[in-house]
Design goal:
- The chain is of the alpha+beta class.
- It has two domains: 55 residues, no CATH class; 82 residues, no CATH class.
- It is built from six helices and four strands, in the order H-H-H-E-H-E-E-E-H-H.
- The protein has a four-stranded mixed beta sheet.
- Helix 1 packs across helix 3.
- The protein starts with a helix and ends with a helix.
Length: 137
Amino acid sequence: MKTPRTQIAGVIIQHLANVSPQRLAKEVAAYLLNENRTDELDSLMRDVVAERALTGTVEVTAVSAHRLSEAALKDIAAEVRLVYPQAKQIIISPKIDTNLLGGVRLEFPNAQLDLSLRAKLNELKTLITYGKDAISG
């Protein structure tokens, strides 16, 4: 019987404080290889990030077209606090995507908050085409 991913994620979180990241990565890789579960790595890491968010450490990837300023990072932290008011620590990992026109897309482990210009334009297009009820409902 294979160990549930959430249980593995819990063990990883327990070891975060006691083991170097390099050693932990090697141990996780060895376990996944041994159990023939390497295809679950992305899902496992999402589970780890989601579990850490429940304990107050929220990790978010901020995708933007350009490098984010300190002011933008502070604004992003404020947005994250709206989604996770219990956050004790917010870790923002910036990521550049030149396909974005502008704005930012915040990627959480199990959700996404799209504040990009494209999303705003799509919202405006829907509003013009279908009316206010299509946006709010």
